[in-house]
Amino acid sequence: MDIKQLYTDLILEYNQDATNRRTIENPTVHEHGHNPNCGDDIDISMVVENGVIKDIAYTGSGCAISQASTAMMMELVKGRTLEEARHLVNLFLGMIRGDVTDDSQLEELEAACTLKDISKMPVRVKCAVLAWHTLDMILDRLGKDKKK
């Protein structure tokens, strides 16, 4: 199987993954993300206890790349500390920008590292980063609330 087929199969698999596609009752934090260019629209809810992401889920709609990227991100950050989640967000965004290219570093992203070639498709970049930017906003807000 060639790499393009593997990439396509993985995106289709994660696009269909409904594991974290649900609503969380009484989340610690909630954020809306929207990509006006193509209509991708997500809502991320998260339960945080003692600095750890105990639960994370999303609802919304969008193209296969945005939905797959969201599912990959959820799988990756659930159970991690907020600091670990911040590191993974920065690593993913660095990968998409082309700033991080070392495969040994990118392995931390698990399935999400398969999206590294999205940077070669500028029109799809916003689709891939929507959930990651939305999580980044959540982490910023949680960081500000903590400082109060």
TrEMBL record:
Alphabetized GO MF terms: iron ion binding; iron-sulfur cluster binding
Pfam families, per the entry: NifU_N
Database matches in SUPFAM superfamilies: SufE/NifU
GO biological process assignments: iron-sulfur cluster assembly
Database matches in CDD domains: IscU_like
Coiled-coil segments on the chain, per record: none
Annotated NIF system FeS cluster assembly NifU N-terminal domain residues: 7-90
Gene3D superfamilies (UniProt xref): 3.90.1010.10
Record-linked InterPro entries: NIF_FeS_clus_asmbl_NifU_N
Record-linked PANTHER family: IRON-SULFUR CLUSTER ASSEMBLY ENZYME NIFU HOMOLOG
NCBIfam families referenced in this protein's UniProt entry, alphabetically: SUF_scaf_2
Protein name: Nitrogen fixation protein NifU
Species lineage: Bacteria, Bacillati, Bacillota, Negativicutes, Veillonellales
